[in-house]
Amino acid sequence: MYTRALGISSCLRRIATPNIIKRTVMTTDLQSRFDKLFGSIDALKPAFIERLGKAVEIPAVSGDESLRPQVVKKAHFLVDQLSTLGFTDIQLKHLGKQPPPTSIPDLQLPPVVLSRFGNDPSKKTVLVYGHYDVQPASLEDG
């Protein structure tokens, strides 16, 4: 019984050791990839901040009916940004009229922005969902 247990343990050690080495190499490789990614993000930080600044300049408060044209302007801003970044099949989908109560007759809902990045059917699909409207802010908010 003891010999048999030792034999299994010895086998497990032989099997596990290459996996540990492989995992260490993969972890090191993954770390270097992350270092490269974070380096790229840091290098692009000024461009990201500039783009964000342009986006938040547009007072796209969807809850304020008088600012609905600004929400639509933000949608067009996103279309331009997506196009610049290489996205394809960019679409603005109009959703119809704003349901009551509304103080503006025939007020349209803000459009949905759809796009694709890449077109390789062998790759998995990643869906990213977000909203582009904002909440009202005052100077006291910062």
Automatic annotation (TrEMBL):
Protein name: Peptidase M20 dimerisation domain-containing protein
Keyword field: Hydrolase, Metal-binding, Protease
Top-level taxon: Eukaryota
Gene Ontology BP term (one): proteolysis
Record InterPro entries: Cyt/Met_Dipeptidase (IPR051458)
Organism name: Zygosaccharomyces rouxii
GO MF annotations in UniProt: metal ion binding; peptidase activity
